[in-house]
Design brief:
Blueprint: E1 8-14, E2 17-24, H1 26-30, H2 55-74, H3 78-104, H4 107-123
Helix pairs in contact: 2-3, 3-4
């Protein structure tokens, strides 16, 4: 379906202030049915946190998901293994970053990483 799994990175600014980075698959952007441009509405609000997080449960979910993904990786064809291995390396790198945020007690970045991790695992089919 896609010719390349690498994503081009774009910095997103709003009112001369960085609001984040976006990784984009250029094959999707080039497709004719891709909706453009990205629209940000200041009239809507997004819930980013509801209640308190249980970091231990999140860690167990991530570890269980990574172990399952690794086991799946070992049982696929050679063609699929390369793509899955790159995904696993990316997830493992995220786990290392999360560990570093825990050591430095950087709660804000830790929460962001947990959100990103949960989202990426959800995309892969894992539900907490």
């Amino acid at each position: 379906m896609f010719t390349d799994t690498s994503f081009k990175k774009y910095a997103i600014d709003e009112n001369n202030q960085s609001v984040g980075k976006l990784e984009v698959n250029l094959d999707i952007i080039r497709s004719e049915d891709f909706i453009r441009p990205f629209v940000r509405s200041s009239d809507t609000k997004e819930i980013t946190k509801f209640g308190n997080r249980d970091y231990n449960l999140l860690d167990q979910y991530i570890i269980r998901s990574l172990n399952n993904y690794y086991n799946r990786l070992m049982n696929v064809s050679e063609d699929e293994r390369y793509t899955m291995l790159n995904t696993y390396r990316h997830l493992y790198q995220m786990w290392r970053e999360l560990h570093n945020y825990k050591i430095s007690k950087n709660i804000v970045e830790m929460d962001k990483m947990y959100d990103l991790f949960s989202y990426e695992l959800y995309i892969l089919g894992y539900i907490n």
